[in-house]
Amino acid sequence: MRKIGILLAGSVAAFMAASAPASAERGSDGNLKILFWQAVSTMNVYLSGGTKEQYATAMVVEPLAGFDEKGTIYPRLAETIPTVENGGISPDLTTITWKIKPGLKWSDGTAFSAEDAVFTWKYCTAEGGGCAQKSKFEGIKTVEAPDPLTVKISFTAPKPYPYTAFVGVLSPILQQAQFKDCLGPKAPECTSANFAPIGTGPFKVKEFKPNDVITFVANENYRDPSKPHFASATLKGGGDALSAARAVLETGEYDYAWNMQVEPEVLQTLLAAGKGTIHTAFGSQVERININFTNPDPALGAKRSTREGGAHPAFADPAVRKALALAIDRDIIVEAGYGAAGKPTCNIIPGPDAYVSTKNDSWCLKQDIEGANKLLDDAGWKKGADGIRAKGGVKLSFLYQTSTNSVRQATQALIKDMWAQIGVNVELRNIAASVFFGGDPASPDTFQKFYADLEMYTNNFDGTDPEPYLVQWMCDKIPAPANGWQGENMPRYCNPDYDKLATELTRTVKLEERAALVKKLNDMLTEDFVHIPLVYRGQPSAYATSLDNIKATGWDAETWNIQDWARKK
Q1: What is the C-alpha separation between 231 and 228, in angstroms, rounded?
Q2: What is the 3-state secondary structure of 238-296?
Q3: Under DSSP, is residue 552 helix (H, G, I), strand (E, B) or coil?
Q4: Handedness of CA 452, 535, 50, 29 (dihedral sign)
Q5: Contact present, 69 and 551 (Cβ < 8 Å)
Q6: Disulfide check for 130: which of 292, 313, 341, 486 has CB 3.0–4.6 Å away?
Q7: Averaged over 196-224, what is the pLDDT?
């Protein structure tokens, strides 16, 4: 732990020196035009697991600390990063104390206080609430405010990696005055707060039209009087990845478009226009297929896709799950849809290198149709006259859903053909990204509801330590009606052995021992076929050549330093 503290202190000093404020007038660069082809549904990341919500929200609300383009933790609302060396972390690793920068104001002009952090913890852990980022507060006993500029977090046991709560894009601080009546089941009902949160970030929301457009204006109370350089920002949602790429790279209509999930040869053609560039940052994104461990049969009503509804009639057999994984050719998927922005993987933890397992690469990275067929034959799944396997009245015929995107639909088609070769049939379904990732508890089409047998998407963890991510597959993180479908454990996987190992990780100090546990947890998810990892994805986004100070990152929101973005002079 002492070594970590020294490294952090040095990295933060270097970061602060490299990020010294530029002399410029706030708002001098006019309007910043942003395009998200996956439209934003809410401005509250605690009510959505969608990346689109995270990146938009990061422009307005902030955590105490974040991660830069290299994955280095740095202070945002905090004065420094607490370490054992500077006294911010107790020697027994059971507390972390954050000191807040003095003079911070919310965008409404009121004073920011440590009590707002205390409230945010209570908000996400409130009884009967559905917090999409509950794993960020795992193992916390109390959050206290000894004074207005101090946040003290106490853990139930020694916490070797304490940079979880209030760190990174997934754990910003909410204003208590605005959200005080939004605890528990009331959280989704606070529309005005969820659509226009009061923040400390460089921008504030002027107008929010769900699944359409957000108008931001510069926050006049932002702590750096020379920033942001843009007076306003317009974030338009909708369309598709290709049209978004064209709007920046070919026509120059927009300044920035997130998530260019477009065939590589198409991007190369668009880049020839010379109006934009692609920045690709590798972090922790893995395109995967989640396997539903519960029964999604509509006849189950309110128990559909819940543990109360029982196990999935086919996926309860691990031979079926493994056969699906064996039948996939990841090389073809990468070549067709990702090019240099993708790498085949069998891991849900693809980086940093110290945490990457190679245990399953020998069998997983190579397609094995013959082996998959034998596995199903031996397990008693026999092909019928229609070529589809069945056993005990259960057919291997599944609904396979994902968000609407040309690369994802092409991937679906490739996998459908691969699975047909082993006697498995799938019905393909795609859902508008704004709905699929929207997190609306009333919608039947969200990835949290998982009203299908299989679903494909990507997400990631912020920062470079995967502990907060891996605890998401614990039993108590399963989405359900009781938590507003906001749990992070989409496959509904529940394994006491996994929970025990994940808990051990939260209490392990030595880096080499932590790395070993991360690999074990990763391998358990792979070998239990909780999901089928496909592609380690970079994050390619399009930026106008006229933009300056872009620092693409895969470890936090791409908008992490949007206050520094400027027009080239």
Answers
A1: 7
A2: CCCHHHHHHHHHCCCCCCEECCCCCCHHHHHHHHCCCCEEEEEEEEEEEEEEEECCECC
A3: coil
A4: negative
A5: yes
A6: 486
A7: 97
Is residue 542 a contact partner of residue 249, using CB atoms and an 8 Å limit?
A: yes
How many CA atoms within 13 Å lie on the side-chain side of 98?
30
Q: Residue length, the chain? A: 569
The token pair that represents 83 in the structure block: 């370490």
List, in sequence order, every residue forming a beta bridge with 543; answer none if it has no partner: 256, 277
> In a 3-state reduction of DSSP, which class is residue 33?
strand
Beta strands in 300-437, from DSSP E residues, in sequence order: 342-344, 382-383, 389-391, 394-395, 397-403, 425-431
- CB 30 within 8 Å of CB 216: no
Per domain, the residue ranges of the chain are 283-463+526-537
Q: What percent of the chain has pLDDT over 70?
A: 96
- Name the residue with tokens 């699975």: 419
Residue 312: both structure tokens together: 């999935």
CB-CB contact of 542 with 557 (8 Å): no
- Phi/psi of residue 146, nearest 5 degrees: -60, -30
C-alpha to C-alpha distances, 13 to 4, 19, 85, 557, nearest whole angstrom: 14, 10, 15, 21
SS3 of residue 449 by DSSP: coil
Residue range 142-198, pLDDT digits in tens: 999 999 999 999 999 999 999 999 999 999 999 999 999 999 999 999 999 999 999
What is the spatial distance between Cα 199 and Cα 205, in angstroms, rounded to a whole number?
9
> 3-state DSSP: the chain helix, strand, coil percent, rounded to 5?
30, 20, 45
* Mean of all residue pLDDT scores within the chain: 93
CA–CA distance, 555 with 464 (Å, rounded to integer): 7
CA distances from 336 to 262, 265, 330, 414 (A): 10, 9, 10, 10
Contact, 450 vs 143, CB < 8 A? Answer: no
Q: What is the CA radius of gyration of the chain?
A: 23
Closest CA to 182 of 123, 137, 121: 123
Measuring CA to CA, how many Å separate 196 from each of 199, 203, 220, 355, 502? Answer: 9, 11, 16, 38, 36
φ, ψ at 6 (rounded to 5°): -65, -45
Tell me the pLDDT tens digit for each residue of 330-364: 999 999 999 888 999 999 999 988 899 999 999 99
Mean pLDDT computed over 451-476: 93
Give phi and psi for 399, each to the nearest 5.
-95, 125
- Architecture per CATH, domain 283-463+526-537, reads as Roll (3.10)
Assess whether the previous peptide bond of 352 is cis (omega < 30° from 0).
yes
